[in-house]
Amino acid sequence: MSRADSSDTAKGPPPLVTTSSSAVTKKAVGKRKRDSEIRLVPDDQRIFKSQRFYFFPNSDKHPARKLRIAKAIEFGATWESEFNESVTHIVADKSMDYGLLLKYLKKDALPPHIALVSENYPAECITFCRLLDPRQPQFKVRGYDLSAAAPPISSASSDRSLKLKPAPDSVRARQPETPVQDDRVPESPPTVSTEDGEGEEDRNPSAPPIESTAEFDAALKQARDLRHVPLDMEEDSGSRPTSSDGPATDDERPPAGSELDRRKKGKAQNYQAKFQCMHKHTGSDENPNVGTIAILQQMAEYYNQVGDEWRTRAYRKAISTLRNHPTKVWTREEALALPQIGGRLASKIEEIAYTNRLRRLDNAKAEPQDQVLQTFMQVYGAGFAQASKWVNAGYTTLDELVEKAELTPNQRIGIDHYADFNSRIPRAEVEQHGNAVRKALHKIDPAFDVIVGGSYRRGAKDSGDIDCIITRPNTDLPHIRQVVLDQLVPKLFAKRFLMAELAATSRDDGSKWHGASCIAGSSSSTGIWRRIDLLLVPSDELGAALIYFTGNDIFNRSLRLLASTKGMRLNQRGLYKDVIRGKGREKLSEGTLVEGRDEKRIFEVLGVPWRPPEHRIC
DNA sequence: CAACAGAAGCT
DNA sequence: AGCTTC
DNA sequence: GTTG
Ligand SMILES: O=c1ccn([C@H]2C[C@H](O)[C@@H](COP(=O)(O)OP(=O)(O)OP(=O)(O)O)O2)c(=O)[nH]1
Ligand SMILES: [Mg+2]
């Protein structure tokens, strides 16, 4: 249970605070303290001069809202750390409503001189370079009736359903009439290909779960949410390109009918349950909780867009367990019994089950802004922070970014090859790229090995990129690095196979190279730029490197979490034991190497039953 | 109440 | 040190 | 958001 924030739907107000101690100067015109200075725009542009803003929630803890507050200050606003009568504007998150605000302020109504506006207000004003009329419908806050002198409190309180947590604000700026026009994205939306998760059936009847399974499971649970939940939208396909970020779709499936009887209900059942990750959800029909899941997914998506990483994870965890739950969950108690579902989610689940919807989300999501943000975040080299800035700056298309925004070289490449980088690579083409690398390398020194890892090694029918492990028996890293950097890469560039360098390892340390490659010739894939990753690994580390580079990411995290619970540490070089961790799991000693060379032995030491790459999908 | 994997490269 | 990616 |  979390008590940390007492606030939620019913009771407490959102955790504002900010000010109190020292976080912010009382009436900050700029908050000193941590980001020391916010540079104000020239005096004549300070459209918010002498305006006093109070945000709701009023904390700058979350990344996106922080940005917005900073922006307002930049344009002359004073940020009131506490509510008082001098406030001129209250800027409320989309997820908030009038009722919540009143409740928090302990008031029956808002003084008429204070303007209540929604979160997009500051950005709009900045866009138009002037103070806009707060009464415009676009700035309306739910439950706040502008026409009524004293808006009834009831309006809002009535809609106590699932409220969004005071989250970091969602970034928004001017509203584009035209969403993002990506001319760069031909037909295939940069989106995720709908995945057909099918690679699930675990075979492994033979390997009954050993004890450690439980631990691994636990670890796995913690980790799996991280992955972008694969939403399978079979039917609703066309409708939404969102799916958050993931190119996560693997549909890796073991070639043959791996389906084996799942005999042994007992442990096998248990075992199975834990590894739901390799679960297929093939039919959209078969899960009784689809409705609930859909809504929770929207919530997760919302929090994701708002930059609330951990809450997003929590939602995804819950979604994951719901997805594997065979029966429809109706009540709070029922939900509470499930792993990764606590009191808050349990209540929400119950409510969703009955009402089948979530009102809070209505205004907070699916706004055009979200689409823009999504689009920007899919630019290679741009993450949440950068995409938010762009959105806040008012950009709405990729073209606009190219024209007006400052881009890093990688971001420029990311935009120029936006469609390419966001499309899946057919398995056969992955092979071609791998072969090109291998062939060139063998010409330099036939003793080298190239292993294509990533989703390819897991058996996926298509991949997001090409992950190559480059190694050589009895060879150390410096030598491998030298060959790769001094010979292989230049050679592949000369052959016009490599087209760009996105991240290179420095000459004397480092072990990876990231760039873009392209197959010449005349196939359907000709001319498409692909991201390619080279991982340079000395022979002693091959096992650990294989685990790392084979993934999937969720699997890795779960394994690493498990290791840490055993006083060990797993990374791409090896498994270490007797790791000393200080406060906050901080690594104090490297620990001593246990195993790095043999993939299987790492599993053994960790007490995890071996699973082939195809089964490492969580 | 802190942890939720662990690391590398770029800006 | 923050951001982004693997 | 949930968990140890
Ligand atoms: O956050 C991450 C991302 C990736 N990896 C590992 C696992 C993953 O399998 C491998 C390659 O990364 P990539 O992003 O290419 O993922 P993938 O599994 O190959 O999927 P995709 O088909 O999108 O390339 O690196 C991690 O450990 N953590
Ligand atoms: Mg990959």
TrEMBL record:
It comes from Neohortaea acidophila. Keywords: DNA damage, DNA repair, DNA replication, DNA synthesis, DNA-directed DNA polymerase, Lyase, Metal-binding, Nucleotidyltransferase, Nucleus, Transferase. Belongs to the DNA polymerase type-X family. Its EC number is 2.7.7.7. Residues 43-139 form the BRCT domain. It is found in: Nucleus. DNA polymerase that functions in several pathways of DNA repair. Involved in base excision repair (BER) responsible for repair of lesions that give rise to abasic (AP) sites in DNA. Also contributes to DNA double-strand break repair by non-homologous end joining and homologous recombination. Has both template-dependent and template-independent (terminal transferase) DNA polymerase activities. Has also a 5'-deoxyribose-5-phosphate lyase (dRP lyase) activity. The keyword Transferase applies. This is DNA polymerase. Residues 1-36, 150-210, 229-269 are annotated as: Disordered. Residues 171-186, 250-262 have a biased composition (Basic and acidic residues). It is an enzyme of class 2 (transferase). It catalyses: DNA(n) + a 2'-deoxyribonucleoside 5'-triphosphate = DNA(n+1) + diphosphate. The active site is at K348. It comes from the Eukaryota. SMART domains: POLXc. GO terms for biological process: double-strand break repair via nonhomologous end joining. One of its GO terms (molecular function) is metal ion binding. InterPro entries: BRCT_dom, BRCT_dom_sf, DNA-dir_DNA_pol_X, DNA_pol_B_palm_palm, DNA_pol_lambd_fingers_domain, DNA_pol_lamdba_lyase_dom_sf, DNA_Pol_thumb_sf, DNA_pol_X. One of its GO terms (cellular component) is nucleus. Its cofactor is Mn(2+).
